[in-house]
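INFO  loader      accepted 1 record
INFO  loader      residues=90
INFO  predictor   begin
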Amino acid sequence: MAHVKAGGTAKNVHDSPGQRLGVKLFGGQKVKVGQVIVRQIGLTKRAGKGTKLSRNFTIHAARDGVVNFQTRRVRTFSGRSVARTEVTVE
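INFO  predictor   done
INFO  writer      dumping tokens
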């Protein structure tokens, strides 16, 4: 007969490193071709003129220039209009 009750299982034991997401270059900063501007999960910020969107939703600079962030109204799938941030390089 066991002298200790069943301990159960631990669920939150994985210790994975952070993904280093977020804005890497802010508005008004100079950028070169190919540099990462935003690393994100999903399309929280949109890619505008002078930028390109990777498969993992990272926004890169498509040309040299200055980073600019602006708010745009975007129509969703349901037809609702919501505000989203658009990243451009001028």
